[in-house]
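User: OsmC-like protein, Sphingopyxis alaskensis:
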Amino acid sequence: MTVNRASVRYEGFGKEGRGAITTGSRVLDAQPYGFATRFEGQPGTNPEELIAAAHAACFTMALSFGLARAGYSGDTLETRAAVTLEQQDGGFTITKSALTLAAKVPGIDADEFARLAEEAERNCPVSKLLDCEITLEHSLES
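Assistant: Predicted structure for OsmC-like protein:
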């Protein structure tokens, strides 16, 4: 079992509140977040950006291992994730995570690549965690 940690300190409430996120690895160390970073494009991060990064990283690693198990040696996998936050029923809900993958995998055909990519999307731990629509668009460079 692996346990990873993060902590948040938040001062003030509502739109005036400001927080800082620190991860156990300290790759984020008192990284600012709050209403302005989440909804107004101010510098800092927000939960949806962190979820997008986690989903893209998790999916890409799962696909990398799936390709290796299938006997392929790598070139590149590049994944973007776009996490959508919508106002619903008087609150906010993450409604979608859209993954977009561009890959170079020598010797693979498009059908096997699609199968392995879709399997990775379904089975990466972050995909399993998210209770929202997940889409995957992929392209394979020859």
